[in-house]
Amino acid sequence: MKALFFLYEGYVDWEISLLSYILNETGVEINTTALSDEVTHKGKFKIKMDMNIEACNPNDYDVLIIPGGEPDPFVKDDRILNLIRGFDDQGKVISAICGGSAFLAAAGVLRERKYSTSIDDDPTYKHYFNDTFKSETDVTVCENLITAEGNAYVEFAVAVGKELKIFKDREDELETVLFFKNQLRG
Amino acid sequence: MKALFFLYEGYVDWEISLLSYILNETGVEINTTALSDEVTHKGKFKIKMDMNIEACNPNDYDVLIIPGGEPDPFVKDDRILNLIRGFDDQGKVISAICGGSAFLAAAGVLRERKYSTSIDDDPTYKHYFNDTFKSETDVTVCENLITAEGNAYVEFAVAVGKELKIFKDREDELETVLFFKNQLRG
Predict the structure, then answer these.
(1) Per-residue pLDDT averaged across A136-150, rounded?
(2) Which domains are assigned to chain B?
(3) Given CB atoms, is B43 within the 8 Å cutoff of chain A?
(4) Other beta carbons within 10 Å of B123
(5) Which of B100, B109, B93 lies closest to B141, judged by CA?
(6) C-alpha distance from A82 to closest chain B C-alpha (Å)
(7) Residue B115: CB partners within 8 Å, gap ≥ 6?
(8) Quick check: A24 and B32 CB within 8 A?
């Protein structure tokens, strides 16, 4: 199995750091891409990309993952919008957390599907979303889309893992949640 | 204020991703260093370092932060051991989580001070530690040292932040914990 992370300047790394770890630990191959060769995340580490975005083909991947941050002005770039549409056209899993959901909205793949996001009435992004379909829950799985609020980063990681069937069984899934909540005992 | 993150091949990024974020959000300057120009973390992102380790001077920093992972063979490298000793000689805050505590043990700075670590009876590292001083708690603050078990990454980030006095008040500190536990309401 293979996962593609789309990163961008100022992305929020803790929203996806559990997910990249869990995927790698369960044997999923990981690639990173961005609109430039290098980006600096919100915690100020510099990340060097594996892939040029033009070279990324949805055929090669099982899931696309997009973290939060400040998507503007990247949310207007056709290279990422078309990549998202390519994943959606093939019904591949697309997962986005916090501000990451703005890319899905801008690409037009949300359509009339339920979504979660931490973006709330921000005039920069508001016009991309149709509030009618905003979910009441902090993680929303709707067809091939998995979206979440930033604070639900543990639940988001587990929801994506579950969709990709990387957990051995229900016990493994529950233990993962409790470990990352620091509530695993015995 | 200025923080130095020591990274190494295969380090566990989610153990320190909240911390680098919180520090940056509160205006702390962040530098990364390693034994090489680039390392790949446990979630497979490639990180490019800001600083050559030989150029790092404890005088320039307020805190040194070391994540977990598999410290062997890096734990035997004098460049990082001497850097840790330099921070300790000046009484600067040194924080390490999970396997990161093995670097402090190997550098000899734990002495007879209480520590936390997720390393448990691993023959590779066991001889570095003196079990008598292993803490019962998952985060331990002892003089200038802050150490933690990996699963306590939220509590670790907040303990380091508290030591550096980056929280406005007790309410700010408590809200940070609850936000990252996804338990903040109202």
Answers:
(1) 97
(2) 2-180 (3.40.50.880)
(3) yes
(4) 6
(5) B93
(6) 23
(7) B101, B104, B105, B129, B133, B134, B135, B140, B142, B145, B147
(8) no
Chain A closest-CA separation from residue B114 CA (Å): 21
Q: Three-class SS of residue B28?
A: coil
CB contact under 8 A, B14 and A12: no
Calpha distance B102→A166 (Å, rounded): 31
Of A30, A66, A71, A69, which is closest to residue A51 (Cα–Cα)? A30
Closest residue in A to B26 (Cα) is A43
> Least CB-CB distance to B45: which of A25, A47, A155?
A47
Reduced to 3 states, what is the DSSP secondary structure of residue B180?
helix
Token pair listed for B84: 């840790």
To the nearest 10°, report the CA torsion of B155, B158, B159, B165. Answer: -170
Backbone angles phi, psi at B100, to 5 degrees: -55, -30
Shortest Cα–Cα distance, B5 to chain A (Å): 9
B178 touches chain A (CB under 8 A): no
Distances (CA, A) of A142 to A30, A63, A116, A165, B144: 24, 14, 10, 16, 48
What would the two tokens of residue A157 be? Answer: 């990681």
Q: Do A14 and B12 touch (CB under 8 A)?
A: no
Chain B within 8 Å of A155 (Cβ-Cβ)? Answer: yes
Nearest by CB to residue A155, choosing from B42, B47, B182, is B182
| pLDDT per position as a tens digit, B7-24 | 999 999 999 999 999 999
Residue A115 DSSP symbol = B
**Per residue in B105-157, pLDDT tens?**
999 999 999 999 999 888 898 889 999 999 999 999 999 999 999 999 999 99
Closest CA to B100 of B48, B51, B160, B55: B160
Angstroms from A140 CA to nearest CA on chain B: 15
Confidence grade of residue B60 (pLDDT, cut at 50, 70, 90): very high
Reduced to 3 states (helix: H, G, I; strand: E, B; else coil), residue A1 is coil
